[in-house]
What does this fold into?
Amino acid sequence: MSRRSGTSISWRRPFYRRSVVVGLVLVIVALAALGKLAYIQLFDGRSMAQAAAESRTVPHTIKAQRGRILDVNGRVLAQSLERYTIAGDPKAAADFVPIDCTKKTEENCHSIGGNPVGADGAAGVARLLAPELNMNAMELGGKLSVPGRYVILAKQVTPEVKRSIDKLGLAGIITAELSSERTYPHADLMGSLIGGIDAEGKGVAGLEQLENRQLTGKDGYEVYQQGMLGQQIPGTVTRSNPPENGKDVRLTIDQDVQWYVRQALKTGRDRFHADWALAVVQDTHTNQIVALADTDDYLAGSDDAKIHSSRAVAETFEPGSIGKTIAISGMLQEQLHTMSDKFTVPDHITVDNQQYKDAFDHPTEHWTLAGILQNSSNVGMVMAGDKYPDQKRYDYLTRFGIGQPSALGLPGESKGLLTTPQTWDRRTRNTVLFGQGYATNAIQLTNAVATLANKGVRSDQSIILSEGKTNANQVRVVDEAVAASLMNGMESVAELYQNTSKVEGYRVASKTGTAEVADDSGKLTGIISDWVGVLPADDPHFVVTVVLKNPKSSDGVFGSITAGPVFAQIGEFLMQKYRVPASSPRTDAIPVEW
It folds into this structure.
């Protein structure tokens, strides 16, 4: 008995000692923890709290709005509207449990049309959200069931829809990020000219690209603390800098004129079964572009508008007989001729084994140089240019802006093609006298004729309205008397075609052209018909250029027959819109025959 009792006592002693040791260890750990806690509370609490706050503090970008593009009268052609990107937190959605609506919870509950949601997790969130986004609930639930903490559910959501989502009680699960949508109220009016932006909001074509720096703003930011579910904790903004929105860009283009010109071009294209048509309207007082239109149907902001440039700057062609105005200007400036000089002109001629013909058969005529211009005689031009050096032929083309980039700087603009006289063969040296052997575009052609309308002074064109920058970089190309002589001769041209291209009540100074161009196969089977006119001729306000590709008419394809009537339609509109006083009778016509 005593032996068993000794054994029991010997077993209990080691256990007791171990228990005491363990207890002491636990006491020491507890004391250490209490000591650490006391240290934090008394000495290090502020730094710990600061560290915790910093871990919750995040920067948030506030997007700047892109500036607007406006017409000359301030009407909106492109603008960015407030929109939102709706994003979800799949992890938070998985933990969602809807709160049924009762009298106690009616301020913070979830229902669909007054009925319970009927599902937890992502499915429940999707059922609440789907009607607001006009999406399928199952599809939305699938998007919210992926791994991770962030998924985009919808883009370009309007502020009205965003406010409705805010009322669903899904804070921390669904967030709305401010973005913008670029819209074009009249997208078909100036599609390729306006161009478009990319997914990042950067201008990549047209005026959107040209003025991207001006239109682009500077993003702002806010730094605040966020909760466990990513929501902003009210009153925790520590730093902020408001965004600087982009600046508006106002054009020289008048939306009303642009619309009317485009309608006239479409009517002309359909009437003459042309491939396309384009036109430029330029104010001669300021050299500002009032309209730059074509018949393409690309919508601003579309992929087509980003790929294709405006035809008025990108399409190049031989100007045909309109080029005679430049050649004669050079001859007069070099004092080789006057407009009243007399020529005996057959309908064909051979020079350096190269034969040249007029566009129509005629007996030998007695024309002055003004008559050669009026009747658009290629043979007469070759005869008049007999003493006109090749270098001068080239020099005056460049002085008038042919083969030179314009001041507009529009993306996709082609400067055309003008080779140096050293490369000209025996034929080209003479064809340049009547607008063949080089290529230009409608912008260059318009400003060349505007130079004559502006008494021989060429100025930079503009399409962006900027104070103090009208008629910039003025250069005298020919003397005022030379320009007046050409305007006089061009008025005689317009009088010849009054039956098709008359602007009632106004004198017009014009030149028409027709030239062969290469088709898709490279063969010269295509036709360009064009017309450039100044009106009124006695007090120039506008220069209007009209170009048609491959027109078809029973009366012929000449520019006077096809492009001329379109010019007249546009001219009548301009005179009425701007209330231009009617012309005085013409009394100083230079004789065209002798």
Q: What stands out?
A: Residues 2-56 form the longest helix (55 residues). The chain has a mean pLDDT of 90.
